[in-house]
Amino acid sequence: MVGTFWALVPAIVAIVLALCTKEVYSSLFIGIIIGGLFYAIDAGTGFTGFLTHITSDGLVSSLADSYNVGILIFLVILGTMVALMNKAGGSAAFGNWAKKHIKSKVGAQVATILLGILIFIDDYFNCLTVGSVMKPVTDKHGVSKEKLAYLIDATAAPVCIIAPISSWAAAVAGFVTEGENGIELFCKAIPFNFYAILTIVMMFAMVFMKFEYGQMSKYEKALSTMNDTADEVADENTKGKVCDLIIPVAILIVLCVLGMIYSGGFFTKMVEDDGGNLVANSSYLNFIEAFSNSDASVGLVLGSLGALIITIIYYMVRKVLSFKASMLCLPDGFKAMVPAILILTLAWTLKAMTDSLGAKDYVAGLVESSAGGLKAFLPAIVFIIACFLAFATGTSWGTFGILIPICIAAFPTGSLRIISISACMAGAVCGDHCSPISDTTIMASAGAQCAHVNHVSTQLPYAITVAAVSFIAYIVAGLTQNLNIVVSCIISWIVGLTALFGVLIFMKKKV
Predict the structure, then answer these.
(1) DSSP labels for 198-230?
(2) Distance (Å, rounded) from C-alpha 458 to C-alpha 388?
(3) pLDDT recorded at residue 232
(4) Mean pLDDT of the chain
(5) Are 499 and 396 in contact (CB under 8 A)?
(6) % of the chain with per-residue pLDDT over 90
(7) In a 3-state reduction of DSSP, which class is residue 474?
(8) Whole-number Å distance between alpha carbons of 20 and 476
């Protein structure tokens, strides 16, 4: 079973069960059980080996990983900050301000998209920050939680993957080998990242065309009256002002950026060279290089912890919250994030099961076997394989690690190399966007306070539409790659945009 299609079965079963039963916890757990069972059968370790693999190699190992623990701490701190802003009346004040200045449902959605685009540093940070800031506004204008979750998710990974200064750019650059400048290659691939850019285009198109399709239309129609959540919060604390939300969020953004470049060595003047001697650190004066070397988990924890401390002091000075009231927000923030933490833990454990079964090796073999012939269609093939792998495993970065080195090895030079790497990145984001076990999808649900399965089911039709159009665009890019790369890009975009708007116009008439 190791290194074969069976390695993907646990994840596929978990995803299918989650979509069919609308119950994500048991679905993930069943997937974990199947993965552990397959591993025990293949290794011949028996029942004790089965239990050990699930607990020690899966659950405990996932929670012992320093990166994962950092993300969980970041989640709890963000949840606490949201609770603080609500308790202080900042969220209610911002909702009231937005009610006066944002006059329509379209305006509320556009403001959400623009804020999501502006917070391009990290997808986790994007999901929770945009959700906490914009939920009072979208509630006021009758935007469903499902639509808010889609707007958050569609401005998280898709924006990060086309931003040169982001944790995702750092991850992609880290997988580029052979001494090549990873950030430079990342930037060259941005114009061919059809899925990410078309996702942003589609969001604006759906907002201004004023229609929904699939499951999303059901939830939008069901929301006939506007939510009065912000008014309820306002009754608790009338001292709050707009600055009580804006200032903590601004501090959070600044400190998280500083935390990330700190983890990348930006403030470290001296480092050790290959010989162990201390030399001047080149990244000390290079912001982008420091960002590419950053550890998102460490940086976000440092930034969010600093922001939390400053926010508590700020509210005490403003006399909108006492120290005791601020401390009571700590368990409230933790409780709010328990569903996301539980789903993330189970998703990481499921990923550990598929990794132990050799899912990555199996998919890598598929890509390598297809690289020999049909080279013109390889970008489209890489896109589909990356979609499937990221969907089944719930990780974009793992997909980068598998496919990017293969694309570099298959195409040492030429435009097809750039297009294929871009297809890999786009496919990974697409699969991550669709997958119920993706951490970004889970956090988008948490940010919008939306039921996770509802978010997945409403987002899928939109994501699949963009994926189909992107697949066509990659076929065109592959067929025209012998032309000038700029010409190939322009032709592909003309075809892609025409196809996308054609589908949307058709769907609107059908609806």
Answers:
(1) HHHHHHHHHHHHT---THHHHHHHH--S---HH
(2) 19
(3) 43
(4) 80
(5) no
(6) 13
(7) helix
(8) 35
